[in-house]
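Structure request: Centrosomal protein 20, Xenopus laevis.
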Amino acid sequence: MATVGDLKAVVKDTLEKRGVMGQLKARVRAEVFEALDDRSEPKPVLSPENLLINELIREYLAFNKYSYTSSVLTAETGLSEVPLDRSFLTKELNVVEDLNSQSVPILYGIVAHFLKEHEDGPCQKVEKVSTENHTFRNIPRGRNTKDTHSGPVQLTQTSTEDWHQRRHR
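Returned structure:
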């Protein structure tokens, strides 16, 4: 006769094999967060940079079907339930896409772009920027000096095809 411990182990193993265990854990976390969330407490005002970053993360989470994580992000940050339009994000971030790159999150293309740029030469210098008086449109994007601009980030099939291959494995 099986013990309670044996039964628990079999159920846990079955749920893990079916890919349900992670979803259940995420759902429980989201429900606990929702129950503990104090809706009377105002959410912080997001800077333009934080809003764009959160939207990029939300798009990434949606693409990967991390819906519970996305719901926690939305609740915790005070993001609107309706995501910003992708064309608005690409315009604000000075991103140029091709048809293939439009099928993956912008964040994938940005990471792929900078990984390729890193292979082609020295790393881009990252400037410490105060978010109080800046938006993404006027943050210097030069490789090694503040006055040069590398131009728009080109998200092309080359920069996103690895993401497609990984996604469909």
